[in-house]
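Journal club prep — side note

Before the paper discussion, L.F. wants everyone to see what a predicted structure for a comparable chain looks like in token form. Sequence:
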Amino acid sequence: MASFAANPIRTVISPGRYVQGKGAIHAVGHHLKAIGSTPLFVADDLVWGLVGHDVETSLKEAGLALARERFGGVPSAVEIDRLVGVIAEKGADVVVAVGGGSTIDAVKAAGHLAGIRWANCPTVASTDAPTSALAVIYTETGEFEEYRFFPRNPDLVLVDSQIVANAPVSLLVAGVGDALATWLEARATSRSGSATMAGGLPTLTGTALAQLSWDVLWESALPAIEAVKDHQVTPAVEKVIEANTLLSGLGFESGGLAAAHAIHNGLTAVPGTHGLAHGQKVNIGSVTQLVLEGAPTSDVREFIEFTTRVGLPTTLSEVGLSSDDLGSLRTVANAATVPGETIHAMPFDVRSEDVVSALASIERYATKVRAEAGLAAPKRYTAHH
């Protein structure tokens, strides 16, 4: 990302309202009524089967009619344009995503193109997409295509903690991987004085929230994961949902992205990684960023140990790559270092060959760290591990 050195404007952006707690879905109608009168809900069949009845009841209480459209599965340009057509057909004045990051990104993009307001009801805490004013667009086969930026954030982000706790624990784990990168990247962006996704230099606020996200996760992630295995909502679970969703969302957008997410984007260029969750690939990016930075050995070791305990991949073999497969590593590295990628927000120049070397080095070192800590040997992760 280019530096704003000649025009040192700092900015922070955020959603209009953030609502979180057990049973929050029952208040969706109340909050939507302040935004629009003809909402269109977008959700896949699985998600709608879980929450549709509660949404319908809440809308009825608020005096709003229910309209719902099925989400096609990938936030591609084709799917977004299809949703724009549905919005026009239904005459909706607010479009509401119910589901994970893919649904949310498609709805944000469609709402923007349709010229209406948009809201998000994430049913998982697996990414920090819900609060942001950007969407990650993929090809229909799942490769990263582009970021789309919008002039404003969602009007409402509503998270029902019990719904999140009812989802597979692997999704919460993936969210921790996404959110841990937030501080590493915001710290790098602050050091380099690069522009953030919010369109200016980092604010103290954005950087501090990124660090708070990191601190909350190191303190609460492990007990929260154990609670969610039993579908329980505890104070630790509430903290981790907020860290994964709100703190990480504000932190990445107004604090800055750097190498970890660029390497994630590079990993999507290799078909073998397509089944993996966003946060799983981001964690490989975080380990690689620490190596690129020449971070203290103790920091790298602690990060590998902690994220292994969380249940995140820290080696190439776990995400279907090999340190010997230099062709695939070059594909990842070339995609991660294209002009305009966030890796250029690092406080030093990063070339494709630097990324190849860093990626190739983590397999042996992470395996050694894990063995010394008595942690499980690397295994292959698959979709929704």
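L.F.'s comment for the group: The first strand starts at residue 18 and ends at 21. Keep this in mind when we get to the figures.
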